[in-house]
Amino acid sequence: MMKRFLFFIIKILLLIFIVLVLLDVAYTQVYLQSTHRGKIDYVYNSKARNYDVVILGSSRANNHFVAPLFEEKGLKTFNYGMSGGHLFEASLLVKLMVERHYKIKNVILEADLNLANEQQSESVASKFLPYIHSSKVIKAHFAQQPHFWANYYIPFYRYIVFEPQIGFREMYEAAAGKPTKLLDHLGYYPLGKNPNANMKNDLTNLKPLNNRYYEEIKEVCKVNKINLVAVMTPMCTNTKGLDYFEKVHQVYPEIYNYENVVVGDQYFSSCGHMNDIGARLFTNIIISEFFKK
Question: How many beta carbons lie within 10 A of that of residue 66, not counting itself?
């Protein structure tokens, strides 16, 4: 009787394992065909692209660099900044571009508040996980992260744990070919004026690190002969601890400080994010100072 019970349990476990493997394969195949849901699949499922300018960083890149303004100057450009992202994801994205044989002349990297941590952003990093078995670059980048073993070796585990990001709903919409707005405006995401925005911030306790992932981006650019332009982008005037940007300059003197080139709450949607008018002022300054020719 006990043997029959154990045999039954083994069969159930084996069946569950097979179902998980099949689901893993099915979900992954959908993501391997998706190209218009976000910036990660847009890069992963692409062939070599040529760019004069690639923009990387967090929302402070995504909302601050108006890619179409670069294009008006004849510069092939795309804004790959990702809201909620950290330098962990920016580093992986540029390495993925190299793996996909992109030819890039210049990378503009927003490197300011994101220098203060070396953590992954789970909401953004999880979107790389469908490709972890297909890309050596992605596997290596996650290899030292917590739960790597489970994400890599346990079938369907990553789709369960990160269900809001890569679970059924996202898979279904990817399968249906439903686009998002993330790729509109060449990746630039404009913000409006928010009358209820909090125009205060406090950076007093923030400390820039000798950031591992910033160093990775520098090395990738050096090896692949890409001109790296690292910049700090504007904050609203009523921010405590603005000396943080000077601290960044002390750690990394090559990062250009543009924190105070756009002044006035009328140019901001929130304290850390400019609206479209402010972003256009800022972008024109960057173009005039780095891309005059």
Answer: 25
Locate the domains of the chain by residue range: 2-290
Task: Give whole-number Cα distances, 118 to 31, 175, 202, 214, 231, in Å.
Answer: 27, 33, 20, 9, 18
What's this model's pTM, rounded to 2 decimal places? Answer: 0.94
> What is the predicted pLDDT for the residue at 65?
98
Residues 6+ positions from 41 with CB-CB distance below 8 Å:
31, 34, 35, 127, 174
- The pLDDT, as a whole number, for residue 166 is 97
CB–CB of 264/270 below 8 Å? Answer: no
User: Do residues 67 and 55 lie in contact, with contact meaning Cβ atoms separated by under 8 Å?
Assistant: yes
Residues of the chain with pLDDT under 50: none
